[in-house]
Structure formats: C-alpha cells, structure tokens
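Forwarding these from the shared drive since the link keeps breaking.
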Amino acid sequence: MAKGESAASLLRELRRRQGHTLRSAASELGVAPSQLSRMERGERPVGEAATQRLSDYYRVPAEVINLATGRVPADIVAILLAHPEELANLRKKFGP
C-alpha cells in the first residue's frame, strides 16, 4: 500500500468507525467536504497543520497519522541512526 493510500485508508476508517459522515466531519474540522474527500482518497496530502486537527477530532495520537503519511518522528529516526542494528531486530520481530 502506498503512503497516500495508507493515510487515506486510515482517515476514512477513523471517520467511519466513529460514525461521522463526510460532510459532518468536514464541517467540524473546518474544511470543505471535497478537501476531506480528497484526503480520504489519497488525492490530497495530509499536511502537518491538518494532522493535529485530525488527531484531535478522531482522538488518536498525531504520530499515528504522521506514520501513515510516511513522516517518522525525529526522535525515532535519531534512535535508529544511533542503533542501526535495531532495524534488523524490528524487521525480524514485526516484519512480514
């Protein structure tokens, strides 16, 4: 699954799981329904400013949305750069 599709799927699933319609969610988020629809279809990137609003609205950590968009927290990158051997351990433990 591509980055955009992953974030799109996450946003759509969060909205549906919480029982919000596209129009009601967009209204409460302060965006146009077409804008939210494009994010949910992977046609519009989820920017950092939108991430926090989406995080608050769907009550999930912003890092979950960031990871779905391919943005890895800087502290995690620093840890992995300092301990590259952990990449193999993570793949072994959690990989396909």
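-- next protein --
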Amino acid sequence: MGKPTLVYTTFPNLENAKSIVGYLLEKKMIACANLREHEAHYIEDGDIAIKTEVGAFLKTAENKWDVLKDMINEIHPLETPVILKINIDDSNEEFENWICDTIK
C-alpha cells in the first residue's frame, strides 16, 4: 500500500472543506483529515490580501498521491489550489497499519 503521506491543501470555507473531505473519505482516498480555520496573508493582483481559509492535512498512503492530487484539482473550488505532498520519513507501525487498513 505504501508509506503514510500527508497532503496539505486549503479551502475557502469550512463548508466546502467538509464537503470535499467527506467525498475523499467515501472514496477511500484518505483515512483522515484535520481541518483548521486560519487567516491567510498573500499577494493577489499585486496587493496584499488577508482572508480566512481552512487548511486541511489529509492523511493517506503514498501510492494514492497521483490520483488524489488529480481528484482534488478537479473538484476544488479555487482556480489554483495548493496541493502539497509532504513525505513522511518514518512513523509508528500502528499508524502505518491503520492507514493501510482504512484506505485499501
């Protein structure tokens, strides 16, 4: 099944994040998601923008990355979403087994 992998993305609001995370859980693309609302500061059209958004850490397996990235890109409401793969060098065996059992 592969090593555990974290995928980080953001959503414009909590409702949208919950909807997409629910879909990814149903499709067994992820085993778990941690959602957190935060303030984002960034450049938009040459100006500094400050908006509230929801960050999501998606717990999955490395071999799901390519399909998961494409799925998020396709259903994400933003034109240019951030979709980052965060490799995990090591983790406890119980967690690895849980990920594998949950999304197989």
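DSSP finds three helices and four strands in the chain. The helical segments are 14-26, 65-75, 93-103.

- D.
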